[in-house]
From TrEMBL:
UniProt name for this protein: ABC transporter ATP-binding protein
Xref: Pfam families: ABC_tran (PF00005)
Biological source species: Streptacidiphilus cavernicola
Compartments where located: Cell membrane
CDD domains with a match to the protein in the record: ABC_DR_subfamily_A
Residue ranges of every copy of the ABC transporter domain listed in the record: 9-236
Amino acid sequence: MQSQAAAAVTVTGLVKRYGGKTAVNGLDLTVPSGGVTAVLGPNGAGKTTTIETCEGYRRADAGTVRVLGLDPGLPAEAARLRPRIGVMLQSGGVYPGARALEMLRHTATLHAHPLDVDSLAARLGLDSCGRTAYRRLSGGQQQRLALAMAVVGRPELVFLDEPTAGLDPHARHATWDLVRDLRADGVTVVLTTHHMDEAEQLADRVAIVDGGRVIAEGSPEQLCRSDADGTVRFRARPGLDLGALLKALPDGTAAAEATPGSYLVEGAVDPQLLATLTSWCAQSGVMAEQLAVGRRTLEDVFLELTGRDLRA
Ligand code: ATP
């Protein structure tokens, strides 16, 4: 277990209410120093509220929050914290008429040892739109500028709230590369994402939040580990009789319809199990498509822990 001293962020018993609604309900989270921690959770789980409380943008109703050993809820400590952390704002705090590169240069001047603005802009594909007013940037360009502004001051700790939401594949990979470089430089990165592959690619640790609490945490490998030896995934018509399928398969095998028409079989996956599965499909008139043998993914774990219902 990480000691308190080694933690970049420690959240204990955090509660945050909006009117009668409890958004965060006794949340505990420890982010070790260095590495990437991904905070995952369904819509409305309380991720942004938690992150914004750590950034000092929201007041906790109860519980304690320490970021780099400081309390972001106390103005004097927040002022000491601000130069040491990077925050990726979704949109607020930017004058819409300001030009992209001017804003980035201005942010850089607020820090003692900023990154080189031109090379940062180039690697995030912002060099060609450097003279464009913020309000005329595309959504993806605004997103990349927000990321650049969060990291240009070489923070010790950076909070990225859905950094790749709405980005095209090129920008997504450029963002991932930047996060990997931050990690290699010893920066602690806390990111929220709805992309399970992003968490699998980047995160050393994952915390899954639901109902305003952390319901699971660990490395992606720890979370995906299961007693099962493997998985078989396939697509077929929705609503297969999984009870009948399980009767055909060896004891200890599990089967679920992860999303309509998308099936996951877990167990001691060997050639015999595959043969039994495909022969059951043949006998039942089921065309199994995209059949793939593999291991449990973070998405499987996420859906298992948080259920499959859409959140309001
Ligand atoms: P998402 O993945 O959809 O961004 P989230 O996990 O980040 O969700 P939060 O934005 O923290 O969730 O919201 C948690 C709950 O608090 C939601 O039910 C949301 O509607 C509510 N909430 C958030 N901000 C406010 C606010 N300023 N006023 C009232 N309710 C709010």
